[in-house]
Amino acid sequence: MCFPRIARLVGALFAAVLHAQSPTATLVGTVRDASSASVAGAAIGVRNVDTGAIRNGQSQPHGEFTVPNLPPGKYEVTIAKTGFRTLRETSLELKVDQAARLDARLQIGALSESIEIRAEVPLLNTENATRGDVISSQELTQMRLDGRDFTDLAFMVVGVQPAEQGSKGAGMSMNGSRADSSNGKAGT
Fold it and tell me: How many domains does the chain contain in total?
């Protein structure tokens, strides 16, 4: 009789591990009014342009919001609050493991008025020390990989360079760090 409970527990743990490993992005930001005061309770709508899936959020008492676990892709973000013009960001692209910041400034106005923004949100992660890059399939097919060593792909990322000859640790150094302070391939 204990077996079904154990099976359910193992299944739940397995599902949690799989969910934790899914490649997602996070959208964070702050909603403020024209005088830079925080706007609490603003409705945040994040729609995946490719699939039409919508995720909703709400700004907290200090105006901050977080919409986690978004699949990489192109998004349209809508921020609305009664008494303010609706703000619409139409050209947001999220990449794997990115924490993109979208700070919004709402203008006072009627609910029927809206502001549409078509500017790109910079791909700058100000939320944590994580840094990554995405190599497109076109770049992969056009590049030469001597010896087909997949770790050579790291050298395509800005800030990654070969380690000094005779150094210990990884065969590369990242953003000025020493080769022995990264988790890459061991050097010779």
Answer: 2
> DSSP for the chain?
-HHHHHHHHHHHHHHHHHHHTS--EEEEEEEEETTS-B-TT-EEEEEETTT--EEEEE--TTSEEEEEEEPSEEEEEEEE-TTB-EEEEEEEEE-TT-EEE--EEEPB--TT-EEEE-PPPP----SSS-------HHHHHHS--GGG-GGGGGGGSTTEEEPPTT--SBSEEETT--GGGS-SPBP-
pLDDT (tens digit per residue) in 35-52: 999 999 999 999 999 999
Q: How far is the C-alpha of 55 from the C-alpha of 73, rounded, in Å?
A: 13
- Domain extent at residue 37: 23-117
Q: Which CATH number does the domain housing residue 53 bear?
A: 2.60.40.1120
* Of 178 and 56, more confident: 56
Q: Please write the tens of the pLDDT for every residue from 161-184.
A: 777 777 776 777 777 777 666 654
End position of a domain, from candidates 117, 145, 160: 117
| Shared-domain flag, residues 112 and 68 | yes
The tokens for 10 are 């193992």
